[in-house]
Amino acid sequence: MSSTADSTKPQADATPEKPEQGHEEEEEELSIVDQDELWTDVTPIPQADVERPMVQIAYHPEYRKAMNLFRGILKKNEFSERALKLTTIILQYNAGHYTVWNYRSQILKHLQLSDPQGKHIQKELAMLNKHMADMRKSYQAWQHRALMVELLKDASKEIEFVNQVLKADAKNYHTWTYRQSLLCRYNEPEMWAGELTTTERLLEEDVRNNSVWNHRFFTVFDTFPLHTPGISSSEFAQIVQREIQFTKHQILKAPNNPSAWNYLRGVLKRGSIPLNTLEDFVLPLTKTRLELETQASGWPTGLNTQSDLPVPAAVELLANIYAQSQAKTQIALELYELLSEKLDPIRKGYWKFLSQRTVANQATAPSTTV
């Protein structure tokens, strides 16, 4: 084996206790490190620690023995069933051990050479299906799964699998990254078909889930040439308007949600639409509750009645709009002052910078930058 990874040492958070296992086969697999007759041809290699380490990691005895055998197997460059079982034991203690995941992938590649039906790969995916929710923060496990799907040449069930993992943690970075890599790599229409519906469902559950907003932008704008080739400019304009209306609706439900405001700005930028088209929408959100309740038009339709007002993101956007108009420069400065002194003082320096830039640009042509 020419190269596996940087080190065979586990990460510092190696589990000192053996995890609970409810699988009969896994209980049997754990016992192989104590079956000395299975390892007579393997010379265990202890970890090369310094004589007096500053921090002594309290490895579980079984984990230590398994790692000693693993180093011996690694030296032999052995890709066998027993080596596969050995990696299973180690990963149950340390799901983030990159060297072991890498070697496990290579073992399965070699075993597949004599297994044209892919039974080993199918069994591996079944194991991952069972335990992936518990390993969802291990990028090594996700990379390993991607390799297994590639070897099996069948990604048809992966989006549904990801949906199940998202039920355990709808914001996990690795899960969303894996989903996006699947969509781009395989680019199958049936995989793309439910993406917008999925984001809408997840936003109904948690409108502040920035991971979902990010995925919606990825689906609608970042990758549309993949799943919607040959789209016309008029069709794209319709998509932009659809997204603007969708986002406005979500903002009214939770006005102080920065994820939705960032998404709205991104939509305008991709659609080359000026900020001032949002003036009528954001203006009510810059008022106090008393001002809204006493004005003739009353409370805006659809606005959450429990909202904290005024909304800093709306005030910022309105200030950005007025900063582009020489006639309303003074109002923009007053809004920046409101943000600086009351609504968002933690970014006082930023609001001061925007105020100074607005004053400096009074004599220049209005900018349409979003």
Question: Could you explain the architecture of this structure?
Answer:
The protein has a domain at 1-154: Protein prenylyltransferase (Serine Threonine Protein Phosphatase 5, Tetratricopeptide repeat). The chain is 59% helix and 0% strand. The protein has 19 helices and no strands. It has helices at 24-30, 61-76, 81-93, 98-112, 119-131, 139-152, 158-168, 173-186, 189-192, 195-205, 210-222, 224-227, 233-253, 258-270, 279-282, 289-294, 312-323, 329-343, 348-360. Helix 11 runs parallel beside helix 14. It is elongated and about 85 Å long. The two termini are 53 Å apart. The relative contact order is 0.05.
Summarize the structure.
The chain is built from 19 helices and no strands.
Mean pLDDT: 90
CATH architecture of one domain: Alpha Horseshoe
Evaluate the radius of gyration.
28 Å
Can you tell me the residue ranges where pLDDT is under 50 for at least 5 consecutive residues? Answer: 1-16, 21-27
Write the H/E string, N to C: HHHHHHHHHHHHHHHHHHH
Annotated CATH topology of one domain: Serine Threonine Protein Phosphatase 5, Tetratricopeptide repeat
CATH superfamily of one domain: Protein prenylyltransferase
CATH class term of one domain: Mainly Alpha
